[in-house]
Amino acid sequence: MNSVIEKKVTGVFDEIVQRNPGESEFHQAVKETLDSLVPVLEKYPEFAHQKMIERICEPERQIIFRVPWTDDKNQVHINRGFRVEFNSALGPYKGGLRFHPSVYLGIIKFLGFEQIFKNALTGLPIGGGKGGADFNPKGKSDAEIMRFCQSFMTELYRHIGEHTDVPAGDIGVGGREIGYLFGQYKRITNRYEAGTITGKGLDWGGSLVRREATGYGSAFFAREMLRTRKDTIEGKRCVVSGSGNVSIYTIEKIHELGGKVVACSDSNGYIFHEKGIDLAVLKQLKEVERKRIKDYLLFHKDARYVEKGSIWDVPCQLALPSATQNEISGKSAALLVKNGCIAVCEGANMPTTPAGIRVFQEANILFAPGKAANAGGVATSTLEMMQNASRDSWTFEYTEDKLAKIMTGIHNLCYEKAEEFGSPGNYMKGANIAGFIRVANAMLAMGVI
Ligand SMILES: NC(=O)C1=CN([C@@H]2O[C@H](COP(=O)(O)OP(=O)(O)OC[C@H]3O[C@@H](n4cnc5c(N)ncnc54)[C@H](OP(=O)(O)O)[C@@H]3O)[C@@H](O)[C@H]2O)C=CC1
Ligand SMILES: O=C(O)CCC(=O)C(=O)O
């Protein structure tokens, strides 16, 4: 360890671990970010003096609540709901809701923390927040999902609003859940405040391209990264993990840009299809029938299903992890590099472990961190809020063009900041530095808040 600033940052991190025990994902996200910020604090001593990193790492507000609901057999269940309103320096808290049995405070805090920097990178007026519940939507009937969402919103409604906190979807929360959540919000408040939640249906305040935005945005980011090495997506063999919202629309745009996605997955296993994933089948299975990825074999006998295997064993040039956190271990990263992978673009939040990131950086392959590469979703949510505020609705082409420009802007900002602070080509450092500077400057201007 060298500088005084480095020692200070290490001390701050140790204190954060002590104050937030047992929240390993939150610690991981904070460490990755703080490690990038040493040169910023050296260049701008006022950030250190004003305790900007200490302030940014402490959520403004954390709400934890009971979510009781009744199943179809009239049995009562109790889940735990969360909303962490992390930082509102740039605008209302903005970030999705995750319904998954693994959810606990540490996961919501890591996601909320990442969201602060991601939202800042978009250049749009949005703060960072995240929420969710330890509820497992798998195997539940529509009526059970509705009752759960209504109960969840019966507490959440008092904390949200178009000028305070604007939730959206994440794992386990798609168009169906957003409908039930917004319906209950409208019912309790007696206000058609469409800008309070994003990812809505197109007939009731939603925006074209929001459904596609995170996946399309990730593919646009990959295109921009490859461009810096005078390369393109055309003809590239790609692997996209997951088969949910982000994965499906990543595959769609990669195919449009001339790449070929040969594998995708769900939490049970992965499908390998040398001819390229058949997106129409995938959409039918996952968006309409809510089935398992294994059923892809019913449509394509020449595909292969690998139960419980690692999708990162499949050789590819471009890897787009789009399922969940920590899905690429150091070992998987090493295998990807050995198999000829030249670029990794994170559609999911924090899908690569610290050991995996080290492998990619040492191999000098292109690596886009989730907070930059998957920012297209939240950016388009903000475009949805703009349309709601002006009682307008934009065309697909207009909205997609705006998304593409935002993603190019984020790419260029990360690239330039990495160079300016002495780590050319390091998109992770560039993203952390650019996001932090924007938020810290706003907080500085507003005094000790
Ligand atoms: N939706 C959005 O707009 C945005 C999402 N993200 C991030 O993208 C990622 C995917 O989100 P999204 O597509 O919306 O979620 P979905 O719920 O639509 O899909 C999630 C996919 O990931 C798989 N998955 C989830 N958890 C695990 C796990 N523990 N192990 C293996 N596979 C898993 C799911 O499989 P199964 O069905 O078997 O559980 C499913 O295929 C998340 O990290 C999310 O935070 C980031 C920015 C915006
Ligand atoms: O659209 C949004 O507001 C949030 C999307 C999200 O949860 C994310 O970026 O991780």
TrEMBL record:
Q: Which residues bind substrate?
A: K94, Q115, K118, G169, S381
Transmembrane intervals: none
Which SMART domains does this chain map to? ELFV_dehydrog (SM00839)
Coiled coil (UniProt feature): none
Q: What residues form the catalytic site here?
A: K130 (proton donor)
Q: State what protein this is by name.
A: Glutamate dehydrogenase
Any one biological process term the GO annotation gives = glutamate biosynthetic process
Which residues are noted in the entry as NAD(+)-binding? T214, N245
Q: Which UniProt keywords apply?
A: NAD, Nucleotide-binding, Oxidoreductase
- The Glutamate/phenylalanine/leucine/valine/L-tryptophan dehydrogenase C-terminal domain covers which part of the protein? 207-447
Q: Where is this site: Important for catalysis?
A: D170
Assembly, per entry? Homohexamer.
- Decide whether keyword Nucleus is in the record: no
Q: Which family does it belong to?
A: Belongs to the Glu/Leu/Phe/Val dehydrogenases family.
Q: State any single GO MF term.
A: nucleotide binding
CC terms in the record's Gene Ontology section: cytosol
Gene3D superfamilies the record matches: Glutamate Dehydrogenase, chain A, domain 3, Leucine Dehydrogenase, chain A, domain 1, NAD(P)-binding Rossmann-like Domain
Mention any Pfam family matching this sequence.
Answer: ELFV_dehydrog_N
UniProt source species:
Anseongella ginsenosidimutans
PANTHER family xrefs: NADP-SPECIFIC GLUTAMATE DEHYDROGENASE 1-RELATED
Which InterPro entries did the record assign?
Aminoacid_DH-like_N_sf, Glu/Leu/Phe/Val/Trp_DH, Glu/Leu/Phe/Val/Trp_DH_C, Glu/Leu/Phe/Val/Trp_DH_dimer, Glu/Leu/Phe/Val_DH_AS, Glu_DH, Glu_Leu_Phe_Val_DH, NAD(P)-bd_dom_sf
